[in-house]
Amino acid sequence: MLSVRRFSMFVLRSLRLHLKKIAIILLAVQLLFITIYVLSDGSSVIGSSWKSLTAPFFQPLTHTSKGGIYAAFDLRSKDSVTGLYEKMNFDTSGDWVDTYTLKNNLLTMKMGADKGQVLESVDQLRYYYNDPRLIWSVVLDHLVASDSNEYAFSWYDWASFESLNKLLALKHTNISCQFMCENAFDKGVLEKVEEEVQEPLFITNRNKYDESFWYSAARKPVQSNLVQQIMRDHCKSNDAYSQNAPFELPFIIQEIYEKLRPEVYDLHAKNHLLYSNFTPLSLTVLDSDKDAYRINLKESDSSKSNIVQTNLLQEYIQRHKKEMVNGDLIFNHTSVFEKFLLHGTTKKRKLDIKGLDKTIFTNEYLYLSPSDFNFDTKAKITELETKLRSDGLSLHDTRYLKSLQTSIRTAPALQKKYFSEATAVTDSTADGHHRDKRFFSIGHNLLNDPQEFEARLSSLIRTFQKFTKANGLISWLSHGTLYGYLYDGLKFPWDVDHDLQMPIKHLHYLSQYFNQSLILEDPREGNGRYLLDVGNSITVRVNGNGKNNIDARFIDIDSGIYIDITGLSVSSDAAKQYMSKFVEEEESSDKSFPALIEDYNFDENEHFDEVDGREDLAKYTVHEIKAWVDSHPNDFDDEEKKLVFKTYRKELSISRSDYAEKALSPKQRYLVNKKYNLYNCRNQHFSSLNILSPLRNTMFNGVSAFIPNRPITALNNEYKVPPSYGFLTFQGKVYLPELRYWFSFADMKKFANLQLREPKITRLESSLNDLKFSDINLLLTNMIKCGFHSIFAGVFNSFESTAYRLKELEIQYDGSLSEEEKSTLLKTLRRGLSKNIKSPEKDPIIYVYERRLWEDVEKVLNASNLYNIASEVEKNKIEEFVKMSQKLYEKNLDEFKLLGSENNDTVIDLNLKGLNLFGKNKQFSNDIFSSDQKY
Prior knowledge:
Blueprint: H1 4-41, H2 49-54, E1 62-65, E2 68-71, H3 78-90, H4 102-107, H5 132-146, E3 150-151, H6 155-158, H7 162-168, H8 177-180, H9 187-197, H10 212-219, H11 224-234, E4 235-237, E5 251-253, H12 262-275, E6 282-287, E7 291-297, H13 312-319, H14 333-342, H15 346-349, E8 365-366, H16 377-390, H17 395-407, H18 450-471, E9 476-477, H19 479-488, E10 498-503, H20 504-514, E11 517-520, E12 529-534, E13 552-556, E14 562-568, H21 580-586, H22 593-599, H23 622-631, H24 638-655, H25 666-675, E15 678-680, E16 686-688, H26 689-692, E17 695-700, E18 703-707, H27 711-716, E19 728-730, E20 733-736, E21 741-744, H28 745-751, H29 774-785, H30 789-797, H31 799-812, H32 819-833, H33 844-860, H34 863-889, E22 897-901, E23 904-909
Parallel strand pairs: 3-7, 6-11, 10-14
Antiparallel strand pairs: 1-2, 4-5, 6-7, 8-17, 9-10, 11-12, 12-13, 13-14, 15-16, 17-18, 19-20, 20-21, 22-23
Helix pairs in contact: 3-33, 3-34, 5-13, 5-14, 16-17, 17-20, 19-31, 23-24, 29-34, 31-32
């Protein structure tokens, strides 16, 4: 007979054995499903090597403990830490590393005097972090449960208030307006705040406050009289504040004061956003790139009422009480999102805008027409005013109508600047002139973390492209964004924004239906939250005084980084001289553009449908406006007089230029531009219909995008594009075609060890402009040894996007292929691979979240262990990358073996199609960009 102890051991061993068998069975089932998924995907019929780069490898496990249900993550477990490092750097999916729960995440205090304490109820919350899993779950569940399409919006739930939460957590330290209105924080108060919250108030340049010389210089501008003035003009006491008031601060920033250090500006702007009356008009929720749904927002004075203050969170918990385990509850936001999409009332929210075609991305080409670049503003105003009197207008239509009515009364010479950037922030490294002042933030460590910055820029463009595709809006890559795309399907690493153009007709669609809407990325793919902001003078299509060159912006509300959007239209601006050759190219006669103008029969009675400003002054030329200002000086302030004079001087300069239209009046210029299909944005970048149309369907940053029909021509109008695709150098940057990536030359010299200054790494023996395949492994290994971890992550994660662009180039510029053959092959490539290209960058919110987890790991494990874990992961990733590169090099990449069409089982091996721009016998000698081929 077995003893009790031996029996217990026997049971334990049996249990372990069964658990191991169960685990093996579960793993086998999982692998079966993955296999079925791969085989049924239909995009690639041979191999799954890209799948190995994209498949999620860190599946969070959940279990029950005294704290409730939560993701199993052991900071001391090598497997968990290895999985975290791998996911943080090499998994760009929208998956979270753990599970968000009521007790472990929401009710457990993360800082302050109550740090570690678990609250009994959400009613006790003084602050919370607006984790997307929490907010999505509560808001969407509320809409489904209430059968409503309205929701009380709060910036607190959607924008990042991490820094402000630290002030909300304070119970003993008093913060005044003075702390918020000095150029740099008072160090004594700062230290008291950090002592109470038990963590730094900010990370970026926090160590500078301990340097006496720097601190004295930063505080030097702090003059008592000036600070008092700033406090009077920008800050006031909050009447709703009391020592125990949740979500309330003792002060309210009434207007943003810009001349502050970034860490002060961050809090200043966040407070202003929280307490301002400015809110979006709606939420636009994306279902990937397929559809968009509109959620209306309640018009309320209490714009800062969050999900706790409106009881939405409490109601959510009550509805899901049965799902609780040990008093804990999982917030499964993707499950709620899918329930939301399938709910009957969601159909009412779906956006199908009359005049827009959601199928435009299904074809290889999109043909534009002259009507896309003309817009009859007066007819639109009449239409909306008629509808207002009969049926009434939606909130978006009402604001749009008001904007049009304001715009037509705005003379180009008197336009006031619409967009405001944080240009006055007192630290040039903050790049304030590329940030919207309302949403400027230094984030967790944004100014010092290029990986987060790149993640934000990538998420911006990916979400915008999915947004346009889901709604049928037409836009295309332009300026530096188009130039970056040309080489590897990505932006230039040194660009700090994106540039897009769209025809004026679609700019008006954007304004009417989406202006002031918060665009929300599909939460299964990422967590982007972007304000679509369209200027209030879009009917003015000339440069005017130059204050409003940008028509619209797509703004990241967590950082202020944005996309610049400009509309192209016919205008009365003088066409630039470089446009002459495109007019002459399209005409069948041999006459020059000036000669064609001389032959033009101007009909002075022809309708001039450009609207240039304010009724009274808008109908006059700038010469007439200046004469009016000169004769009525008391009717205009000094700033307006300067703007008019500036515009007048620019008009005079046209007559002294070499422009073909220099002798024409504004009306005549408009008529000529219209006849010859010459279009411009308000920054006087000109293009023509034959340069733009047909737009070509492609992939940029892993998502669908359009580019102009003749991209080299479009770029050469602004830049000088080198003729060759291959090794390039530009202003201290290097493009390596073997890695399809741009690098800083200073960094390149280090990890190639060109100057023999790195004793621990092997020197690159090959010439940079003629690398061998074996050099790839060496360069990547050296890259890691030199500490360029984020650069390697960028190279690795962008493999699919850059390999796609490489194959696209090889087909596009193969002179042996006919245009029809190119079109067929490009369609096969795009249809077969576009849906499987992973994002080249991580979702920024997930990245920051995982980065914080890693910082917790760094506090527990020693540097040696962390180094070994990171080295092991990166060694495996280098092997994966080299293996994929070898297949690309040898023209044997499985993913390029694709079905010829949806209804055809014939396999087309694209490895064998097009030029050879990488690998053996590479054709870098071909100057493929030397002529503007209509590929």
